[in-house]
Amino acid sequence: MNLIDIPVKAMETPTGMASALLAELNDHLHNLLKKGETHVIDLLSLPLNEADINELADLLGVGEVKATIKSIGSSSIRETAYSGIWWITHYGDDEKVLSELIEVTQVPEILVTHMDEVRHSAQVMASSLAGQEKVI
Amino acid sequence: MNEVELLNWARGPGLAYATVFMVFGLTLRVLEILSLGRPKEYAKVRSSGVKEGFRTIIRRNLPEKHCWKYITATYIFHVGLFVVIFFFIPHTQLFKDVFGVFWDGWPNYIIDFFTILSIATMMYVLIQRRVNPARRILSRPSDYFVWLVTFLPLVTGYMAFHRIGPDYTLMLAMHILSVELLMVMLPVTKLVHAVTFAMARYYNGSNAGRKGVKV
Amino acid sequence: MTTSLEQGINTLKRVIDAPIASYFSSCTGCGICSSACIFFTETGDPKYTPIRRVEPMRRIWEQEYTVIGKLKKLIGLAKEVTEQDLKDNVELAFESCTTCGRCSMVCPIGNDIVYMIRRMREGLTAAGLAPKELQAAAVRTMETGSVMGFPMKTLEAMVKAAEEETGIEINIDKPDVDYLLLLSSAEVMQFNEIISSLAKIFKEAGVTWTFSSKAHEAGNPGMHMGASEIEAMMINRIVEAAEELNIKKVISPECGHAYMAIRWEGPNVIGRPYPFEVYHIIEVLDELRAQGKLHTRASSGTVPMTFHDPCQAARRGGVNEPQRNLLNMMSSNFKEMNDSMACNWCCGGGGGMNTIEKAEPLVRKVFHRKRQQIEELDVNIVVTMCATCRNTLEEGVEDNGMDVTVLGLTEVVANHLLKENES
Amino acid sequence: MTEERVDKAETLGGSLISNGVSRRTFLKFCSTVASAMALPPAAAKAMAEKLSQATRQSVIWLSFQECTGCTESITRSHKPTLESLIFDFISLDYHHTLQAASGDAAEHAREEAQKKHKGKYILIVDGAIPVKDGGVYSTIAGITNLQMLQDVAKDAMAIVSVGTCAAYGGLPKANPNPTGAVAVSDIVKDKPIINIPGCPPIPVVMTGVLAHVLTFGIPELDSHGRPMAFFGDSIHDRCYRRPFYDKGQFAKGFDDEGARKGWCLFEVGCKGPTTHNACATVKWNNGTSFPIQSGHGCIGCSEPDFWDAGSFYKPLSTGSMNMEGWATGALAAGAAVGVASGLLNSNTKSKAEAKHEPVTLEDMGAKNE
Q: Between C7, C128, C142, which is nearest D361 by CB?
């Protein structure tokens, strides 16, 4: 018998949290629309079981954007069928889920390139161009 | 002393001291009773009375029918206490650990039910001690103390199990300590009836049995 | 004169035994014993709670026979029992208790409370506090052989009358017969038809029997009082009589406390087993019935009747079935009282109560319970097998203007005997 | 422009970018920490912002009576993990296991850091401090642990006690505690101390707390000095096997039906109900599992004195001492005193018997009347 064989599913049935979350998301969508307020929900901090998360994923559906970040493990960012609602999953270096978030925003924070990095890349590019000139 | 040290003390030395005192005290009490002896029976008996004595130990578990109205609350309390003490699973573990005998505990919702029942009936019994004239006239200050000593383990146990109150560790420590207080008080107060009731019933049943009366 | 506070307390120390220690240890003060006591139920006064009747004894037990009590005494937490404590206890142990023992039936913890009250009385008597009526009765009994002071001469006259009435020879001091018959004072005084009744029954059954001029009564005020030595003197009289006449079976009369004294306490107070056996008269009659030697007619077939179980014979003495066997033989309309047999409610007059003048109002008051029990059965005949109960019942019936006849069971059996020409 | 560049280089944000740690990794770290600490999700952004503006925090790590398990725990992964990022945020100026320097040079580095960052450095301690016999039972470079702690703590901004030994004394303090081991908090009374107990502590708990200290300061602590975010709940409260406890379904051994069905481990000694830690939620080895999930009861390693709380394999509801001997002794003593008291009782009774005078007819007052 392996560890993996130990059945660990104490609660299998959805608890109804998914639909409660939908109602909450609806409010946040309106806030985004009217006041431009963004919101993040940390799914791991909520008493959700696997069935709840699956149900929520089904209810939200799949939208047209999907992005992957590679940095010490990957992160998956996808827009749900509801535009403005994003599902973000951070994986560790061995594909374990580190955090699972739902963000109500136009573009998730993590996708936006930070100005510090823009500045840094501008410097790198400048020095690389300078190097080229020298070579040329 | 923080709650962890308190719990460790309660589960360790505290429990040992309480057990030692209780075992010591109960042994002493029982021997004290036995030392007074029983007069020799010269009358021609209808029975040796031994069987009847043991029979009464069991039979008195059910009250005389007309007594129900006075005893129902106390009775439920005792049943509740018995169930809670002997069938709450963590308690069965304790008995297994101490005596090496094991029986199956009952589901928590049943224990919960009996705990609440016991707490409620105990409060009623306390009121009765003030209200019922016979009970009131018999009451000594120690009776109220003994009531409290019995009541505390029930309440602290319930609070610990349901995570009511400051902190589980602290509540568990308080629960165990309150039980230890009960154990210490067992041989020195009327709580000793938890053991000597069997002797009283035996003697009564046996004396009556010799005369051919079922009591 | 040896009675004193010191002797009283000494006696209490002496009589506390393991059963009493276990009872005191176990008492939780629940007060349920009160619900079994007519003196509480009929007056509502909590001072009559049975276990309270032995409080001085409890204190002596705690202070003398428990380590905790000794420690309490050492640090001055324990009050010693004073003469006043004992005096105050007389009312509870003697003047409001028939030692019926109903409390011992209901104690959830199993305490035999009346066992303790009996010992408590012993202590009070040793302290010289026994009610004067009981003391007088004891003196009378020892002087005349009769609780009420009927000397043997009175009985002899009655025997003669019975012989004339029945034409049956009745023995006095005849050795080697089957039974030695003892009577109670009440029977001699009020219910003396019992002599001719029994003469007929025994003749019919072919049983031989005799009276003894040395011991004709079984009544024993020594027991009520808790004066074991006096009780023993009265018992010894009977033992000697039976031994002299070489009789193996002694009959206790229809008297509960006499049965208790001669059957159960006697051997213990004299400290040796009897060379004979003791039977309640009703046990003897039932045995004859079982042997087919009792030919009765069921004339009272339809008259509803009930039976009052005397505490000392039924609850405390173990005679519960014979009376029912006999009544069912004679009547098809025998109605059981509620709480019958070992749980029967006391008549209120036993244990010396109906001789104590002070207790009279209380005895009258508590009869209410019995009245209720009889009235709810709707019967006109109450049978019993104890002269004291019979006395109390008759007084109660009269007091309350009830249309009820009280009968002794032996008498009922005699009245139902088939005449010779009927058999 | 030059000024600004220098500033940027000194902030974490700037230095990390130049080291190839992207801002997205940064944000990912912060949202993971925020999630683990149950901070509001929006705090992740604020945390990332603050971290990027912060300068590298000087940290002195002192190891006393310990097994290096705590250091192992935080550094054990050979792949770069998110948790190991914390080493990019701090300047570990002294850690005698990890640092390259040794001997005088090492101690010199510590003294340098103490001087340079006086009042600003964070002191991390793992291991208990022996105080018996002047603390001779553990020394580093001839300095006793006690002296070194007192010396370094004096100018620290805050102290983080990592592991149960530093936090509560742990194994060295277990009975009979031959070295007189004590916790950091038993010695240092005038500095804020954060306890991160566990044997060892969960890596993300350590990094999370450090990240919190770097950004939002000292987190909310419980009465045992533990951050509420990780130690607020008991293992039992968050255990996935809890429903079995509530239903009364227990494994009675490690290889029985109940064990195979994954039932509650209370009866085989699980101390989950009295243990506060994040194992049940954060788990170990990057969220793979935790002891209960692997079929072993919680041993309560993040609680004070857990070594002295009795067997790991006896239920919490049982006593922690073996009482057979005690009980037998008590029985014997009770019997002895009982017999003695019984003899006294018999004596009292026989005396009463001897003193007894029969009640006779002459005593009957009525006769005299």
A: C142
In this predicted structure, the answer to whether residue A79 has a pLDDT above a threshold of 70 is: yes
pLDDT tens-digit map of C348-406:
999 999 889 999 999 999 999 999 999 999 898 999 999 899 999 999 999 999 999 99
**Is the confidence at residue A13, as pLDDT, over 80?**
no
Task: Parse chain B into domains and list their residue ranges.
Answer: 3-8+63-184
The total domain count for chain C is: 3
Touch criterion met for C and A (3+ Cβ pairs within 8 Å): no
Q: How many domains does chain D have?
A: 2
Domain end point (choices D230, D255, D270): D230
Give the span between the Cα atoms of C270 and C254, in whole angstroms.
23
Q: Cβ–Cβ contacts within 10 Å for residue C66, how many?
A: 23
Shortest Cα distance from D321 to chain C (angstroms)?
29
Nearest to C315 by CA among C128, C98, C89, C49: C98
Which of C9, C14, C74, C144 should one mutate to test binding to chain D, selecting the residue with the greatest count of D CBs within 10 A?
Answer: C14
D35 contact partners, CB below 8 Å, separation of at least 6: A42, A44, A45, A98, A99, A101, D41, D44
Q: Which residue of D has its CA nearest to A71?
A: D25
Query: Considering only CB atoms, which chain A residues are within 8 Å of D286?
Result: 92-94, 96, 98
Q: Say if residue D368's pLDDT is above 60.
A: no
Phi, psi torsion values for C389, nearest 5 degrees: -60, -45
- Copy the structure tokens of residue B127: 């009121």
Residues C89 and C204 in one domain: no
- The answer to whether domain A3-106 has CATH 3.30.1370.140 is yes
Contact C7 D357 (CB under 8 A): yes
Residues D233-246: what's their mean pLDDT?
Answer: 88
- Coil, helix or strand at residue C132: helix
Would the ipTM clear 0.90, i.e. be above it?
no
Q: Domain boundary at D266, D290, D308, which?
A: D308
> C289, C316, C333: which is the final residue of a domain?
C289
Contact yes or no for C31 and B201 at CB 8 A: no
Residues C164 and C265 in one domain: yes
Same domain flag for D123 and D263: no
Cβ-defined contact of D327 to B8 (cutoff 8 Å)? no
pLDDT value at residue D5: 40
Domain-terminating residue out of C110, C126, C142: C126
Residues 6+ apart with CB under 8 A from A33: none
Do C3 and D359 make contact, defined as CB atoms within 8 angstroms? yes
Identify all chain C residues contacting B60, using CB atoms and an 8 Å cutoff: 107-110
